[in-house]
Each structure stands twice: as structure tokens, then as C-alpha cells.
Amino acid sequence: MATAHAIPHPGIQEAHHEDVGFWRTYVFSTDHKIIGIQYAVTALFFLMFGFCLMLMMRWQIAHPGEPVPLVGWLLERVLHDSRGASLAAKGIITGDLYNTFGAMHGTIMVFMAIVPLAFAAFGNFVVPLQIGAPDMAFPRVNMASYQAYVVGGLIMFFSFFIPDGAAQAGWTSYSPLATAITTDGQTFWILGMVCLITSSLLGAVNFIATIIQLRAPGMTWMRLPFFVWAQFVTAFLLLLAFPPLEAAAVMQLMDKVAHTSFFLPTGLAVGGALANVSGGGSPLLWQHLFWFLGHPEVYVLILPAMGIVAEVIANNTRKPLWGYKSLVYSVLTIGFLSFIVWAHHMYLTGMGTRVATFFQTTTMIISIPSVIILTCLFLSLWGGSIRFNTPMLFVMAFLPMFGIGGLTGLPLGFNYSDLHLHDTYYVIAHFHYIVAPGTIFALFAGVYFWFPKITGRMMSEFWGKVHFWGSLIFMNLIFQPMFAQGMAGMLRRMADGGANYSQAKVPGLIGGLSDHFMDLHRYILYAAVGLGLAQIPFIINLFWSIKNGQKVTSDNPWNSTTLEWQAPTPPPHGNFAKVPQVYRGPYEYSVPGHATDFTPQNEPDQSVSAKR
Amino acid sequence: MSTEILPYIVQPRQDTGLYNAKVGIWLFLASEVMLFGALFSSYILLRVGSAEGYWPHGWLNIPVGTANTVVLITSSITTVMAWASCKMNQFGRFKFYHACTILLALTFVGIKSYEYHDKFTHYSIKLADGQIADGHLVEKSKDFNLSDPDLTKRTGEIVIGHAHEVNLAGKSGDELQKELKTIYDIRSPEGRHVHHGELKYKASEIASMETYGPWHNTYTAIYFTLTGLHALHVIAGAIVIGFLWSFGAKMWETDRERFTNRIEISGLFWHFVDLVWIFLFPVLYLL
Known about the structure:
The complex is a heterodimer of chains A (612) and B (287). By secondary structure, chain A is an all-alpha fold. Chain A is 62% helix and 1% strand. Among the domains of chain A are: 22-222, Cytochrome C Oxidase, Chain A (Up-down Bundle); 555-612, no CATH class. Chain A has 19 helices and 2 strands. In chain A, 54% of the residues are buried. Residues 1-5 and 10-17 of chain A have low confidence and may be disordered. Chain B has 2 domains: 19-118 and 218-286, Four Helix Bundle (Hemerythrin (Met), subunit A), CATH 1.20.120; 119-211, Roll (SH3 type barrels). A 5-stranded antiparallel β-sheet of chain B has the order 4-3-2-1-5. In chain B, a hairpin with a 4-residue loop joins strand 1 and strand 2. In chain B, helix 1 (20-48) runs antiparallel to helix 6 and helix 1 packs parallel to helix 8. The mean pLDDT of chain B is 94. The interface between A and B is large, with 46 and 43 residues.
């Protein structure tokens, strides 16, 4: 960054410094660190945008049919249907608009916020540094990958403003619904997805090639930091799981624009009349192809987060990770198994009990390596003298939050209990516990942790802690009640939050939602607003600290062992003054007999013994 | 450029035995396998799920498809020869072989467009009396118009050649299957012995009509999607090889080894594209 100060390292800056001008440095950069920052900034923007969509939806659920406060007038003015009428007349969110917000909240959060932030942003900045590489293996492909992401993001963003608005068929875009909705939003969604998939594929190829080819001398596979392993497996998931969704997107696009019937069955009726389609297609086929990506995608969301958690834990407990090899083999096992669990999202499709039994079994098996990873991370805390800085607080919260998310997934993995819970708020609560206080907390930890390497300054600890406690409390207030609502039978995706099925509206309705569960909507709304307010210290802290944060006094302010902290701050083009030689594993903390409580990976044996 | 600071661009890394781009292209091809794999799986699922007698056989011209297969296989040979020529330091031979590759790629796309054109002029016409007429367009009158929902107000006429009429209405069982074969299995005895001729229809007799485009049925949908996506790969490969053959060939003067690597990488992609066709040909033309 232009404002960052550099810790003097004689000879390096001159060696690689090349003045290529503003555009080549910050916009069309091929440097992995700049691209990582570009990804992070763009993804954080989408994260906030997706959160705002959610706030408006929570308002609509808690107060169905009432104008949205503060931004209602804006919605009314910018969102129009094909006849020119507003989609949000008087600032009230209609059912169609609610569907749009729901579909786009999911799409944006998964494909445009979390994956780019967890995989592309942190991966780009940290992975080459951690393996001691000068850059990614294919710098220009790296730039193309970011550009494809931006194009996909822009297509998605601007699809809100086309007549009739963006896609409405959920982030899963099930056919025939997605095809039968006559608006153009779905076509934009598919085109946007094709760009985002292309971006992910280019990124995945680049990450794997970089990790295979550009490890520094001595950086053997079992000396890789766990974060690199997590990114390595994630890249394989993206590489192999995304193309089937691309194939599905091509077929849905053909259904939409060339009037084929890949996913449209014979005898399909739309709006009470027989649809004019050739038929013969299979709606189940879409679901299989979607979830073939969709489930590995869950691990794409969580594995990089686990990698960050492992790095922060080892650094702040000042001791080696407990069971490094178990962690590595578990993450590889998860990577493999994640390809054969997808149909547990489809128990209610009528695909048959034998198929369901198979996927139920594999789903239970995949929980084993997940539990091993979480157990290793918990055990790593044991006996450590823990430093409770902001990154560590987020990571400490990640462990139980991810635990809740994971354990509440088991009843969804068994098909008999899933019959009741399927498509309810219980599901929403379950996967948000994985991704929101799980992955996003780990990502916050990563931001606070690597910020000094990126800028040469620390973020404020005080405001970091305010951010942490606010986020932790409000996250739980939002998602805990949803478990109860879901078990009471409240379905997701209802624009009125289930008011039409409430006992208040239909007195005496058997199984109707009681006031008790309906009232929770209001408290969840308050908590969501609170969560939004809790992010303000983070946003200010992030930007304020770039120029005004406390300057770091060394390249390695956290006293860490991994290679990124041995590079200059901020790392120059080409990263290292000379190619680092790696002598040891990634987590040699508090080794008995060593002078310091950390021994960097590139510290030669002689110098360690000399210090004794 | 930032690429200059990277190791293993030209020379392989010792422990992996590969240079960077080779790792990259194999990973990329793995994702391509998943892309086409998903489409082939969809083909299998849709075909297995189709109603009896409705899956088409013999709708594509086997001699033409065979010719195109030969064209692509030959282009694979010239691609290998082009790379070998680079390795043997014979730039002139490289130029010759890759010129052949590019011409063969263009031939393939040309033949494919001829086949596409054939499908877009092949009509299936639902007549008002419930019969189906099937044949290739000979001519349409200038005022031919089906847009009026009232049949009697439709104007003009159409002539189709190599055509025949089928009546499926009220038929079931073996009788229906026999009748279906005249359209869907035109290599069967029933299909071959149908009398074909030139037929003429007034627009007022026609309930609806469509060409054999992707919208016609699941088979044409998968045919156009798979071959279309494959053709895009052929065109993309031809563009890359065309660039390396023309402007990109300047690198031969500055960095021969790296240029030869580029020819190898683009060649690997080209072989993959050929391999996809080796699967497409039997699946769509023969089975």
C-alpha cells in the first residue's frame, strides 16, 4: 500500500523495485499481494452488501408489509418491473422482491464474499509467502482470475436494476422454477456464475501449481503450514466440483434462451397451463449437478477458515499444533469424502431410500475427520500460555461456534430427522453457525492477524475487542432462536416470516406457529441491527489503522515461525531478499533449549545451537 | 514483467520433474474432464429416462461424422509433429505442420456448420388433422406466416422435400412403436422403408412447426450443447495455435526452449479437444 512504511532492508527494495505506474501497480497488477488485497476489498464490499440485503429481509419478516425504514424510498426509486412500476411501491418489499433478496443474499455471500475472501484473498496474500515463493506460478492468470471475479460480481450487482430485478429462485436456482420465472434475472445470474466459476477455476489451477512447484528449498510437504494444506485441498475442491455446476449452468442457460428441456419434465404446467416445452428433462438432474458443487463448496467455505484458525492458535498458544499430521490427513480425507455426500441435500426429492442410505452413511463418515480437526485445535490450547489478542479471541470463539454448527448438522444428515427439519429455519441456523460465527470469525481473525504484514501497522486492540464481543453476542442472538423456530416447523423462504401459518392469523390451526415463535422475529431483527452496529468499529479500525495504526517495530510482530513473517514488511515485489532455505517444521514454538520461544522455519540449525 | 522472477518457467523442477505450465495445463484439463464428464453423465441420465421409442437413432450422417473424426485425428498427428519439429530445431517443418493443424481445425468447424445447417432446415410440422410431417425445407412462399392464432387466417405455403407423414394419434403398444421408428429410428427396417417425397402444405393446415434445433427434443438439445461446447473448444484451440504460429512465433528467436514448451502445452489442450470428440462421435452418431 502506498501509505505503508517499510522496515529498512538494505538492498532488496532496489533489487526488485520497478516503477510501472499507478494502473499497473494497483489495478492491473500481477503481484499476488496486490491481487490478494484487491480480492479482500472487493469481497468485504460484497460481504457488507449481502448483509444489508439480509437486514432488509429481517425487517420484512418481522414487520411484513410495512415500509422499510431509512432505505425504503431508495428501493422504490431504483427497482422497477418491465412495465416501469416500482418493485417496492411505498418502500414495501413485495414477495417477488423478497425472493430476489433471498436468492441474491445467498449467491453474494457464498460466491462473491466468503469464497473470494477466504480462498482468493488470504490464499493470494499468504500462501506464496508461507511457502517461500516469489509470486504465484502464473501471475497473469492470477490477474485474469480477479478480473473475471469483478465482471461476474458486476453482472450480479447490476442485475438488481434490470426490469423485474435479479434472480428469484434461491441461491440453489432449482429448475423448473428458475426456468419458469419469466424475468431475465436468472439469465444474468447464470452469466454471472459462469464468470465467477471461471475465476475460481483459474485461481484453483494457480494455487495448486504454485504449491506443487514453488515451495522454497527444504519446504517439504510435511513442513507446510496447515493453512497451505487447507488451501491446497480447497483448490482441488474448486477445480473438480465447480465444472459440473458450469455444465449445469450451460444447460440451464440453454433451457432459458434456446428453449431446450434439460431440466423440464414432460407435462410441466406453469400457471395452470401446460408449458410449451419439448419435455423429457429431469429436475433432479439440476439438483444433482448443483449439489455436486454445493457440498464441496461448504468445505471450500470452511477449510481456509480452519487453516487461519490453526495458524493463529499455534502462534498465540506459543506451542506446536497438537497432531499436525492428523490435521493434514483429516483435511485430505475431508477433501475426498466431500465429493460423495452431496445428495444429503436431496432426501425429500423422492430419489429413493437406498440412495438416501448411501449418502446418509457417507455424511456420517465425513463428520469424523471434521471432529478430528476440531479436537486437535481444542487440544492445542491445552497447557499453552495463551495470548488473548483480538485474532486469538475470534479464533477462540470460532471453536465452539463451529462446534455448534457442526453438531446441529447431524440431525440434518440423518434422513428420518431431516424429514421434519428440511427447509426450515433450523437449516438456516445450522449453516449460518458454520459460515457466520464460524468462517467469518476466522476471516476476521485473519484480517487482524496479517494486517501488520500487509501495512506495517497494527490494528487497534481496543476497538478490535469491541468488535469481537459485539459480534459474538449478536451472532448468537440472531441464530440461536432460529433453531427453536425451525423445530417448531417454521419454513425458510417465506416472505411474511410465516405469518400466514400463525395461530394469530388462523386461530386453532393445528401445528400453526404460536405467538411465542413469531415474536422471536422481532428480537432477531434487533440483534441483526446490533450486529451491523458492531461492524462499525471494525470498518473504521481497518481504514484508520492503514495510516494511523501503531507501527510495527520488526517484520515479525507476533514472534511467529512461518515464512511470511520472515519476509520484509510490507513484502516487496518478489517477496524475499534471497530465496529462503527451510530447515524445520512450521510450528517450532517453545522448543526446550532454544534462546527464543519461536524458531523460524528458515533459521539454520547452527544458529539455533549457537544461541543456546 | 513479474514472470521473470519465477523459477521453473522453462526448466523442470527437480523433485516434480515438471515445469510450471505443464502442471497448470494438466490441472486445467482435469477440470475440463469434470465439465464434459458432467455433460456426458447428464446425457446418460436423460437417455435412460426417456420414454420407450422416443430416443432418436440415426439422425446424424455417419460418413460426414467419420470424415470429421479423421480430420481431428489427423490434426492431432500434425500437432505432435509440430512439437517434435521444434524439439529437433526444424522451424520450417514446425510452420508447415501447424499450418496443417489450423487448416484441419477450420475444416472441422466448416463440416460441423454444414451439419448444423442441415438440422436448422429440417422441419417437424404438426398438422391441424393431428398428423406429423417431417422433411427438409425446399421453399417457403414469401407470405408464409404462422403467427395468427386463428388457423384459417394463416397465409402462404411451404414445400418440404425427402418428406413423409406420420400419424401417432390413437396408436399404442407395438403399433405406436412401429410408427415411432419412422421418425426416431430411421436406420430400422420401418424407418428405411418409409416412402419419401416432396410434400406441400398451406399455412392454414399447419398447427405448429419447428426445426430440429436444440428446442426440438432432449436429443437435439444434448447434441447441440455438447457439440457446440466442443466446437468452442476447437475454435479457442485454433486461436491459440494460430497465435503461436504467427505473432507468437517470434519467441523462437529469443527463447527456443520456452517456445517449444508453449507448443507442447497448447498441443496437450488440442489432444484433449480431440479426445472429447472421440467420445462424442460414437455417443451421438453411432449409439
